[in-house]
Design a protein that fits this description.
Structural class: mainly alpha
Largest sheet: 2 strands, antiparallel
Number of strands: 2
Distance between the termini: 17 Å
Shape: globular
Order of helices and strands: HEEHHH
Strand order of the largest sheet: 1-2
Length: about 80
Amino acid sequence: MELTVKLDHTADIPFLKQLLSQLSGIKSVEFSDGDKTYSWDEIEGHELFKKVLEQSEDDYKNGRYREMTDEMFDEIFRS
C-alpha cells in the first residue's frame, strides 16, 4: 500500500520524518518532486532543508506550533 501526501515548501520535514518513523508498519519514506525522488540523506544535506529546519525551530521558540494529540492523529489518519 502507498500513501501520498502533498507538501508545500514550508512543511516541517524533520517533524514529519520523526512522526512517520515512529508509526508501526512504515517500511520506507521518500520525498519526490515531479519525476525526482529524494532520499533522506539528500534532503538532510540540502541547503533548503537547513532553512526549513531553522524556520521550524524559530516557530517552536516563538510558540507557533500545535501539539499532536490522539484526537489529531485520529483526524489525520482515519479521515
